[in-house]
């Protein structure tokens, strides 16, 4: 069973007591007293150690050395004396770095010993040998934390949990976040999570809400099916929120996490074997088709893929964006798209899906992209008309479709700084913020508008259907997104 640890540090013992109570209320199993940080802020080691018997949860006591990114730079004899006092006063665990233990072995009398290794500059070197070295000197638990270069490095970390003894394995930073959210599925002995509003003790620590609530750590196990979304950037994505709601709604043993990925092919080659299904977003919608055993016809036609699912032992690529775009376009014009003039902004993977979807629905499609050559290439391929970006102000249309990322988390930006015709429909695929500048200005001009959230939920429901054969709870997913985006 993976235990959840909340790191806490403060020079005032009363604060540590309060935070331990908050950690217990949040569902944690342990607290980690970062004694090195407490002392660096002016705390008294004896006063802090005396709080151990009164904490609301059992404690890991850590006096991390500066050589492993901690704050302790004193004499090792002094550090061991402090550790010995913490052991005497009731620490449940003592965390000591392997490199210091190898040079000067020491074991607590009552507490259990964690031997740890940190690499804040890279994904680690010979990690399996490092874990073996910890076991050879009778560590009660081996702990490894590294800084991955890309998401493919997660595969090596996952392999450390080999069933031969308790291992706490985690990657740091945003790239490493999945290693924490999947700790229960991987079998990591510990996972560190911060209380909402706290900074945490290392980069990439999730909140207790995300770990225990959204990702249902307590329900994870060896049989948990793993899904996720790959992209760059990815922190803005609400896909983990809505898909985990859908899994919980149906009581499925599955979890969905965000993967920050630079090299999509490298990630899939390293990690695809233990991932049941993927959502794919910018900039990777063209990256993995060649890795699939099969492609759905629409995905093959569009040439952009936003979904991977498994069928009869093989991997299948799909595009659920196109049908969602068509339905959003129909809502924006309040009827059939046949004979309507649609202007699509953006010639990337989402733009390609929009062009194919709207043309297949009978619309006349115009296409604009800041890089003209890209728009020209797609226009020749699909039979639509490329419009120079500099000529957009004078272009007439019935439907404007933004498939660029302009406005994403930037309410002041818009891909359309021109007058909008009141009779037009406007659909913006950007869903964060909920109402972009384009949508606000379109409404002010009297246009009929469709939010990016509508497309987002629609395409996600189609993904969920392919993964599970079940209908996703669209209303609950939409309400959760609105709450998150309105917060």
Number of helices: 19
Stretches with pLDDT under 50, minimum 5 residues: none
The domain tally reads 3
How many strands, which pairing sense, and closed or not: the largest β-sheet?
8 strands, parallel
**Strand percentage, roughly?**
15-25%
In total, the number of strands is 20
Named CATH architecture of the largest domain: Alpha-Beta Barrel
User: Judging from the principal axes of the Cα atoms, what is the shape?
Assistant: elongated
Oligomerization status of the protein chains: single chain
Strand order of the largest sheet: 7-6-5-4-3-2-1-8
The gyration radius over C-alpha positions equals 26 Å
Average pLDDT figure: 96
Termini separation comes to 34 Å
Classified in CATH, the superfamily of the largest domain is Aldolase class I
The level of helicity is: 25-40%
Kindly name the structural category. Answer: alpha/beta
Find the CATH topology of the largest domain.
TIM Barrel
Q: CATH class of the largest domain, please?
A: Alpha Beta
Short note summarizing the structure:
The protein has helices at residues 13-26, 35-40, 45-49, 76-88, 98-103, 127-136, 154-158, 173-181, 183-186, 208-214, 239-249, 264-271, 297-302, 321-333, 349-360, 372-382, 437-444, 452-468, 474-486, and strands at 3-8, 30-34, 59-62, 93-97, 112-119, 141-146, 167-171, 190-192, 225-231, 254-260, 277-280, 294-295, 307-311, 314-318, 341-345, 364-368, 385-386, 399-402, 425-428, 448-450. The protein is of the alpha/beta class and 487 residues long.
């Amino acid at each position: 069973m993976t235990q959840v640890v909340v790191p806490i540090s403060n020079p005032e013992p009363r604060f540590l007591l309060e935070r331990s109570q908050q950690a217990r209320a949040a569902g944690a199993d342990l607290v980690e007293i970062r004694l090195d940080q407490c002392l660096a802020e002016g705390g008294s080691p004896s006063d802090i150690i005396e709080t151990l018997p009164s904490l609301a949860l059992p404690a890991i006591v850590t006096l991390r050395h500066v050589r492993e990114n901690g704050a302790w730079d004193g004499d090792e004899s002094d550090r061991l004396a402090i550790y010995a006092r913490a052991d005497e006063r009731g620490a449940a665990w003592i965390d000591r770095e392997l490199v210091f233990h190898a040079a000067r072995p020491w074991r607590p009398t009552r507490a259990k010993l964690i031997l740890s290794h940190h690499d804040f500059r890279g994904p680690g070197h010979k990690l399996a040998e490092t874990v073996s070295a910890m076991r050879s000197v009778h560590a009660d638990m081996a702990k490894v934390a590294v800084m991955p270069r890309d998401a493919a490095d997660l595969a090596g970390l996952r392999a450390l949990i080999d069933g031969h003894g308790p291992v706490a394995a985690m990657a740091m930073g945003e790239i490493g976040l999945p290693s924490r959210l999947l700790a229960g599925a991987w079998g990591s002995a510990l996972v560190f999570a911060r209380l909402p509003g706290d900074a945490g003790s290392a980069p990439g620590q999730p909140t207790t809400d995300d770990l225990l609530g959204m990702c249902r750590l307590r329900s994870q196990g060896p049989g948990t099916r793993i899904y996720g979304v790959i992209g760059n950037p990815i922190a803005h994505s609400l896909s983990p929120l809505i898909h985990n709601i859908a899994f919980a709604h149906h009581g499925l043993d599955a979890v969905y996490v965000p993967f920050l990925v630079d090299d999509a092919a490298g990630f899939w080659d390293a990690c695809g074997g233990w991932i049941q299904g993927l959502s794919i977003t910018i900039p990777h919608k063209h990256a993995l088709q060649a890795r699939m055993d099969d492609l759905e016809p629409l995905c093959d036609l569009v040439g952009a893929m936003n979904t991977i699912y498994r069928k009869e032992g093989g991997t299948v690529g799909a595009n659920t964006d196109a049908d969602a775009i068509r339905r959003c376009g129909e809502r924006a014009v309040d009827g059939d798209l046949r004979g309507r003039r649609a202007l699509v902004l953006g010639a990337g993977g989402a733009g390609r899906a929009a062009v194919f979807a709207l043309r297949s629905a009978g619309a006349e499609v115009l296409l604009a992209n800041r890089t003209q050559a890209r728009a020209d290439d797609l226009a020749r391929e699909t039979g639509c008309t490329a419009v120079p970006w500099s000529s957009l102000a004078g272009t007439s249309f019935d439907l404007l479709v933004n498939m660029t990322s302009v406005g994403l988390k930037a309410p002041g930006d818009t891909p359309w700084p021109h007058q909008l015709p009141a009779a037009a429909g406007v659909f913006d695929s950007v869903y964060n913020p909920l109402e972009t500048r384009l949508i606000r200005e379109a409404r002010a001009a009297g246009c009929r508008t469709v939010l990016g959230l509508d497309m987002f939920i629609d395409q996600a429901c189609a993904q969920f259907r392919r993964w599970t054969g079940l209908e996703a709870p669209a209303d609950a997913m939409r309400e959760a997104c609105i709450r998150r985006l309105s917060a």
